[in-house]
Specification:
Blueprint (H helix, E strand, L loop, with lengths): L10 H15 L5 H15 L10 E6 L4 H9 L4 H9 L1 E6 L6 H10 L3 H4 L5 E2 L7 E2 L10 H7 L4 E4 L12 E4 L5 H10 L11 E2 L4 H9 L23 H25 L3 E6 L1 H9 L17 H26 L7 E5 L5 E5 L3 E4 L7 E7 L7 E2 L8 H8 L4 E2 L17 E2 L18 H10 L20
Parallel strand pairs: 1-8, 1-9, 2-13, 5-6, 5-8, 14-15
Antiparallel strand pairs: 2-12, 3-4, 6-7, 9-12, 10-11
The structure holds zinc ion.
The site of zinc ion has 6 residues, from α11.
């Protein structure tokens, strides 16, 4: 393990944090030794250390719009986000166009601009016949999970964009390619026919546990899937696709809860994709119908059902946030954010919501924890500020080559900086070909995911469908 002074941090402060991190990290196997080590050393050398043991939970809710979330918080329909709002900061989170989810989620997780981190769109343009989603090794800089791992904190990462192949972090990473319905749908949209055949989880020894959590379909919340049985929705809405989003968000949450239960990581990062996907189908029901072509103007009853199903999905997401956050102390950082909002638009013929222009540039941020005053606004925070905010909260230096800064809603101790974290070596699980690629393509085709003549034409990096 490298020692903090390599990055220019204050050596004593860093070693105390390192010991704290080691103690936390070792708490499973060597709890007694770690506790003795931590108590002995912290009592002598780290009595002023104010950040011992505080944990961080980051939850990404793709495409959550302030236009929907904020009125619902005020109306009491999102009790968990309302709780964060009361206890901490909330408001808009400014994004960076173009609003392609993987590039923005990579910015959120690295503190770097897309030009610097290298994930600039959905797919790498190889040939028109051979497209491939960006993979984790296309990211040129370490992410938050690498930085905190390096500093001795334990980490859990579930379903964050562009985490395949998974990275060898100090904890568990369940890659976005672990969730089969989700990744099939994305690959179908972007005509990526490469199979994800390598390990989907780091460490591989946790794969069986991840599978067990994935397959347990006991309901997590009292909020039922608002799509499957909902015949009142506009006729052209594909209820089956929306139900799969509901399932995927539940699966992601179950796996994340399992990591929390098994490892209690210092830093936990969970990505819930559903609001974005559901909004692409249902957003139009919130907008004046004159914005849409006649075929996409539902009857008033269908329109109300569509708007209500979308709001219901926000309620479901809020309930999942409540489950994920339930074991965090009031001093821990709980930060929920989205990468962009939504606006009226017709794309790929049937989708009535998109995120293309300034109108959907703002996502949301909700943050509570030590150093965050109750009931304040987001104070101009942007997506580049998330990683610096987490670093500052953990007492780690921010990096001079990160364009953002810790959110102005967070009061932190004097901030150290380092020039860069880019020297951290990122190790990944090796990709192997299984030889089953053609079989998987045939399977996708049998499920209706692969059509030779996709009605949507040729989605590419600019496709607005995710
Ligand atoms: Zn989207």
């Amino acid at each position: 393990m490298k020692i903090g002074h390599e990055f220019g941090a204050h050596p004593i402060a860093t070693s105390c944090r390192m010991l704290g991190g080691l103690a936390r990290r070792a708490s499973g196997r060597h709890a007694a030794l770690a506790a003795a080590l931590a108590l002995g050393v912290l009592a002598v050398g780290c009595s002023g250390d104010s950040d011992g043991g505080r944990r961080v939970l980051l939850i990404g809710i793709d495409g959550a719009s302030p236009r929907v979330a904020m009125p619902m918080v005020e109306a009491g329909r999102l009790p968990n986000l309302a709780d964060i709002t009361r206890r901490g900061a909330s408001g808009k989170l400014r994004s960076i166009p173009p609003l392609f989810s993987p590039r923005i989620w990579a910015t959120i997780a690295t503190g770097k601009s897309p030009r610097d981190h290298g994930i600039t769109a959905f797919v790498k343009k190889e040939t028109s016949e051979d497209k491939q989603l960006y993979l984790s090794h296309d990211r040129r800089v370490p992410a938050l999970w690498n930085i905190v791992s390096e500093r001795g904190f334990s980490v859990g990462v579930v379903n964050w964009w562009t985490t395949y192949p998974p990275e060898k972090i100090n904890g568990v990473m369940v890659s976005d390619h672990f969730f089969p319905e989700q990744i099939k749908m994305i690959k179908q949209t972007f005509k990526d026919r490469h199979a994800s055949t390598g390990a989907l989880v780091h460490p591989q020894s946790w794969t069986a546990r991840a599978n067990e959590l994935f397959e347990n379909d006991a309901p997590l919340t009292s909020i039922a899937d608002p799509f499957t049985e909902n015949a009142a929705l506009p006729k052209w809405v594909n209820r089956e696709i929306l139900s799969r989003q509901y399932e995927t968000d539940a699966e992601v949450t179950r796996v994340a809860l399992g990591i929390q239960q098994d490892f209690r990581p210092d830093v936990m990062m969970v990505f819930l994709p559903g609001i974005d996907r559901v909004s692409h189908w249902l957003w139009g029901n919130l907008e004046p119908e004159a914005l849409y072509p006649p075929g996409l103007r539902p009857e008033p009853a269908a329109r109300e059902a569509g708007a209500e199903a979308l709001r219901r999905y926000y309620e479901f997401t809020d309930a999942l946030i409540g489950l994920l956050a339930r074991d965090y102390d009031s001093d821990d950082l709980v930060l929920v954010m989205s990468d962009h909002g939504f606006e009226a638009g017709v794309s790929m013929m049937l989708l009535t919501g998109e995120h293309e222009t300034q109108a959907s540039l703002d996502g949301v941020i909700f943050a509570r924890g030590h150093g965050i005053e109750a009931g304040i606004g987001s104070r101009g925070a942007g997506v580049m500020d998330v990683t610096p905010t987490v670093l500052a909260f953990l007492g780690l230096p921010t990096a001079q080559d990160m364009p953002g800064r810790p959110g102005r809603f967070l009061t932190s101790d004097t901030l150290d900086t380092v020039q860069s974290y880019d020297g951290i070596r990122v190790e990944r699980v090796t990709l192997k070909s299984s030889g089953r690629e053609q079989e998987i393509v045939e399977h996708l085709r049998s499920l209706g995911y692969l059509e030779e003549d996709d009605a949507g034409g040729e989605p590419d990096a600019g496709a607005p469908s995710e």
